[in-house]
Structures are given as C-alpha cells and as structure tokens.
Design a protein that fits this description.
Length: 231
C-alpha cells in the first residue's frame, strides 16, 4: 500500500528523471547542432560568401534576421516532432553560413586563426562554467527573465540603429553588453531546464544555441577590435 509519503517521493523521483532526460537530450542535440554549424561556416569561408554583401553590407543582417526568425518560427511550430529536430539542424547550418562572414573578417588579420580559437575557448569556458553552476546549485534564476528580456530588446534596438550610424565605439559597447546578456541567458536557460521551466528539449536546445552563438560572435568582435593584427 502506497503511503502519501511514498507517493510524494515517487512523484519527485519521476519529475527529477524527466528533467534530467530533457537536460541530456538538450546537450545531445546541442552537440549535434555544432556539426552543421561548422559545415555551414566552412562552406561560407571557402566560397567567399561574405562577398555577396560587399556592396550592400546592410543586406547581411537583413538576411540573417529573416532567415533566423523564419527557422525559429518553424522550429517552435514543430517542436514536438522529428521535423522540429530537422529544422533545428537546418537552422544551425544557416547560422554557420552567416557566421562565415565574421570568420572571414577575422581571417583577414594575420592572427585571425588565434582570435577565432580564443573566442571559441572563451565561449566554451563561459558556457561550461555557467551551465555547471545552474546544474549543480539547482538555484532558480527565473527572476532574471524580465530584466534579461528588457536588456535584449534594448540591445536589438541599439544594434539596428548602429546599422545606419555605424559608430565603432557603439559597436564595441554593444558587443561587450551582448557578451554579458547572453552569458546571463546561459545561466537562466539551463536553470529553466533544471527546474522544470522548459520541458521541450528542442526549444531548450534552440535557446542555448542562440546564447552560445551570440557569446562567440561578440567575443570575436571584441578580440578583433582590441587584439587584431593587420600586419
């Protein structure tokens, strides 16, 4: 005969198993998503994809926004099916292709390979540290959600404005703030999975992927500005 205490314990164990399963599936799909990202980046660099926008630089961010939001809409609509996983992998290939524009810019520096490696290493350290913090402590960081969302909206507005003004100092400020915001989002998003706020591993993967992608791109921008060697 199950007592209320036993039933409560059993329910708690099932909830913990479910959350752990979502976390495992998220990390598995996140790791898999890096393969099409790398493939897209290699294709973009090898084909000089960036040259398509050389005469019209504003077209690159417009294509990025249109493609990214289109894929994210499709992933959200199909998050419960295998199609959602397929769209996620297609999305990461597209993101890798767009990433090749930043990589090509970095490779024009004599130490471009080093800058890319540093940005990748820094992103890895940030992600692993914050993900471990959220997982081990199991602290609920959901209180950060509102502040992060407001910060993200302001960041997007500033980024769109700087497409037209092209102020170098503002671009660097935006990149520095973006690193902080998306690092905080890693903590928030992993906490959501650990504490049951996000139960779909496809959406959880999408959120973490965007966090990692944005941390990497903005770290690379900062490294190019402060450590790039054009000799």
């Amino acid at each position: 005969m199950n007592t209320p205490l036993h039933t409560s314990y059993q329910y708690g164990a099932e909830v913990a198993q479910s959350r752990n399963r979502v976390l495992r599936n998220t990390y598995a799909l996140l790791g898999l998503s890096m393969l099409p990202t790398v493939a897209g980046a290699l294709v973009g660099v090898q084909t000089n994809f960036w040259m398509l926008f050389a005469g019209h630089p504003i077209m690159a961010p417009l294509l990025f926004l249109a493609g990214a939001f289109g894929f994210m809409w499709g992933i959200g609509r199909n998050r419960e099916s295998a199609l959602g996983v397929g769209l996620m992998l297609g999305f990461t290939f597209f993101m890798g292709l767009m990433l090749s524009i930043s990589l090509a810019a970095a490779l024009r520096f004599s130490n471009g390979g080093t800058l890319i490696a540093l940005a990748a290493g820094g992103t890895g350290i940030i992600f692993s540290s914050l993900a471990a913090l959220a997982t081990i402590t199991k602290k609920d960081f959901s209180f950060m959600g509102k502040f992060l969302f407001i910060g993200l909206i302001l960041l997007v507005i500033a980024s769109l404005a700087n497409l037209f003004f092209a102020i170098p100092a503002l671009a660097l400020t935006i990149s520095a703030i973006a690193v902080l915001i998306f690092s905080a989002y890693i903590l928030y998003d992993v906490s959501q999975i650990v504490n049951g706020g996000e139960t779909n591993y496809v959406m959880a993967t999408l959120q973490l992927y965007l966090d990692i992608y944005n941390v990497f791109v903005n770290l690379l921008n900062l490294l190019m500005a402060f450590a790039g060697d054009r000799r």
